[in-house]
Amino acid sequence: MIDYSFTYGDLEIFLLILVRVTMFVYVAPFFSMSNTPHPVRICFSVFLSIILYGAVPVTTLEYNTILGYTIIVLKEFFTGLIIGYSAQMCTMISNLAGQIMDMQVGLSMVQVMSPGSREQVPVSAGIYQYAFMGMMLVSGLYRYLVSALVDSFNLIPINGAVFNSDKLLDSMLRFFGNYMVIGFRICLPVFLITFMLNVILGILARVAPQMNMFAVGMQLKLIVGLSMMYLTSSLLYNASDFIFVNMKLMITEFINDLV
Description:
This protein is mainly α.
């Protein structure tokens, strides 16, 4: 016989699950895209929380006052925020690659709206972000993000998060080290070809000073840079796979830091 009873204690547990899920959905990549309506995110969070309510391990909450329950809500708030932000940080690698690339090509003043961060980013960064979002949809990585959120309730039960600042800081420092390496590796072909072009233009400026190398160099750098971006577009699959692997490692590492 199915028990349809729903007590006040069950409502408290459900609201805590909803807080963690909602923060994850509003921060994690793919789910937090700027063109996703807020009612869709809210309905998805509520639907996912209803499914998780019968699956996550339920523990007895120990608190005496409203302030005690508020502290538990804040713990679930920051737990979902940290898990979602650990995945969102990896998508920022495309911003670094795009900024370096546009600075070399001459498109640093061109700005477009980022689909993930909802802010103005260089045009190359916007292109890369849309490419990575498409790869995420094709590869099914969004399912991994949902499964990571579900598994977090098994590793970090409700009111069981331990915020160790030293572990979180070490994870952040390791990420920023990889952040610079991965971002530079994505834009390395364009960076090298434009660097070689600058060297050639510098030699020509000394050999033929009567030529206006500034006016010639701007068109050449733009044409060569865009051509190299087109030629290396087939490597975006490998770059996105590299970012997704690091995204999984970041989520796992941050969840382990909260245990």
